[in-house]
Amino acid sequence: MRQAWRVADVRAAEQTLMATLPEGTLMRRAAAGLARRCALLLGDTGGVYGARVLLLVGSGDNGGDTLYAGAALAARGAQVRALLLTPDRVHLAGLAALRRSGGFTTTDLPARADLVLDGIVGIGAAGGLRPAAAALVSRLGELRGRTGQRPPVVAVDVPSGVAVDTGDVPGEAVTADVTVTFGCLKPAHVAGPAAPRCGQVELVDIGLGPVLVTDPAVRVAEAADVAAWWPRPGAASDKYTRGVVGLATGSARYPGAALLSTAGALAGPAGMVRYAGSAHREVVRAHPSVVAAPRVGDAGRVQAWACGSGLGTDHAARTELRSVLATPLPVLLDADAITLLVGGEHAEDLRRDAPLVLTPHDGEFKRLAGEAPGADRMGAAARLAAWTNAVVLLKGDRTIVASPGGEIWANPTGTAALATAGSGDVLAGLLGSLLAAGVPAVRAAVAAAYVHGLAGRHAALAGPVTAPDIAAAVRPVLAALLG
Ligand SMILES: NC(=O)C1=CN([C@@H]2O[C@H](COP(=O)(O)OP(=O)(O)OC[C@H]3O[C@@H](n4cnc5c(N)ncnc54)[C@H](OP(=O)(O)O)[C@@H]3O)[C@@H](O)[C@H]2O)[C@@H](O)CC1
Ligand SMILES: Nc1ncnc2c1ncn2[C@@H]1O[C@H](COP(=O)(O)OP(=O)(O)O)[C@@H](O)[C@H]1O
């Protein structure tokens, strides 16, 4: 698992650590790690000696790190130029170090650079980039390196222009090939539109770990986590002990949602799928292993319900939703079931002890919460989770999972290939299967999003992706993941 901390927590840990160290130690550690990574990058494109390195330097310590790293590269023979955004306010010791090593300052963007270091702002940034910085960033595409290509951009700590705590990108921002960050990851590295702006994220250990005592703001599952959580059948398993998932999905108008959620559920770890709804004949025809009935009340015993994908919002749908919520079982509500919650008619039904998972896309989120997720998707998901006492999986490029207790996860495997009709139905079935197999709700949501994303990527290897392709790709993805 990877973890990221908010700026205030990083600052507090930094203060604790600095109190025990000679002044400037952390910046020297940060700059040394940064310079090493830059040298490696230059090694890939002709070496450090003689390379033209452009430093974009703001007025704070982020600029200081950049100047010291530039000094280290200049000492190895690189031609280092520092473009100072605020020449009257600059990290003076860093600038002196650069000059001592043979580096220069410049006032405008040069035509050529083999490497760019973005040290305009780091975790001290407030709001979007100011006009001068934004104008500079918008011109970075003009630069060319010794191979005639656009030079690699290394962001120092975070790409300038991103909102560090939320991962939002409010305006012009740097798009980095590599981000070298210090001490720990920050939310912008893993969540929101900022995450893809970071490129490859590399962490330089500056000794912050032992003093970083607060809970992380956001967690990111890795393959090993998902593999460890994913239930496997054992010698003593039977179809019931593996868990039975119930699906209350689809309708006469949307029979496809029934089929897709079933396909998702069949690829999950549960031992059996029961379908309840008006598409029961189609479901059995397409998936003979499914036991199907027209209504939730006739479905038979299950260990968890997934409800709502393509269910419709009429009276019959409302009755099925009520039946599902009346059970003492874990329940996932997707799509139309979320829409049915709007207006509060099911407020009483939602007072339940068993886990509840909501999987809204932005439109459903807005209907339920009364406002769109906005720039802070993690905060928005966390508020809805606390308000509904449910695990909220907020869909998107970096799907967010938030628990009522305040735990937040960002999914790293998302791909635009998933943006296809019925993709969410597959996810609902898969997640329902994990719940039925006994996986705790947060882990089930995190693992389902992770595998769903991998399945989208796998399916995309064969061309344009439709939802059945995503469902079909879950099995090969799991085969690789679970070994
Ligand atoms: N924490 C750690 O453990 C360690 C941290 N380290 C490093 O310190 C960095 C943090 O440094 P920091 O605190 O000096 O802030 P920083 O990011 O340089 O920016 C502040 C300056 O930018 C300006 N500015 C603000 N907003 C702006 C905007 N929107 N657009 C344009 N300009 C804007 C603002 O100007 P002002 O508002 O004062 O006019 C202010 O002068 C951190 O990211 C890491 O690299 C490492 O050295 C070692 C360990
Ligand atoms: N641009 C995107 N990048 C990555 N994932 C996306 C993107 N757009 C949608 N998704 C994912 O695709 C799925 C779409 O779900 P949903 O909107 O419920 O579709 P449907 O209702 O058609 O089944 C979600 O898992 C969501 O996270």
Write a compact overview of the structure shown.
The chain has 483 residues and is an alpha/beta fold.
SSE layout:
Blueprint: E1 2-4, H1 7-18, H2 25-44, E2 52-57, H3 61-75, E3 79-84, H4 92-100, E4 104-106, E5 115-119, H5 131-138, E6 153-156, E7 178-182, H6 194-197, E8 200-204, E9 218-220, H7 223-229, E10 244-248, H8 255-266, E11 272-276, H9 280-286, E12 291-293, E13 304-307, H10 315-326, E14 331-334, H11 335-341, E15 356-359, H12 362-369, H13 377-388, E16 391-394, E17 400-402, E18 408-410, H14 423-436, H15 441-460, H16 467-482
Parallel strand pairs: 2-3, 2-5, 3-4, 5-6, 6-7, 7-8, 10-11, 10-13, 11-12, 13-14, 14-15, 15-16
Antiparallel strand pairs: 1-9, 16-17, 17-18
The chain binds ligand NPW and adenosine-5'-diphosphate.
How would you describe this structure to a colleague?
The protein is an alpha/beta fold and 483 residues long. The protein has 16 helices and 18 strands. The chain has helices spanning 7-18, 25-44, 61-75, 92-100, 131-138, 194-197, 223-229, 255-266, 280-286, 315-326, 335-341, 362-369, 377-388, 423-436, 441-460, 467-482; strands spanning 2-4, 52-57, 79-84, 104-106, 115-119, 153-156, 178-182, 200-204, 218-220, 244-248, 272-276, 291-293, 304-307, 331-334, 356-359, 391-394, 400-402, 408-410. The strands form three sheets. Strands 12-11-10-13-14-15-16-17-18 form a nine-stranded mixed beta sheet, sandwiched between helices. Helix 7 packs across helix 15 (441-460), helix 11 runs parallel beside helix 12 and helix 14 crosses helix 16 (467-482). The protein starts with a strand and ends with a helix. 55% of the residues are buried. The structure holds ligand NPW and adenosine-5'-diphosphate. Adenosine-5'-diphosphate binds at residues 335, 361, 395-397, 399, 414-416, 418-419, 421-425, 427, 452. In the C-terminal section; belongs to the NnrD/CARKD family. Pfam families: Carb_kinase (PF01256), YjeF_N (PF03853). K(+) binds at residues 62, 118, 160. InterPro entries: Carbohydrate_kinase_pred_CS, CARKD, Nnr, Ribokinase-like, YjeF_N_dom, YjeF_N_dom_sf.
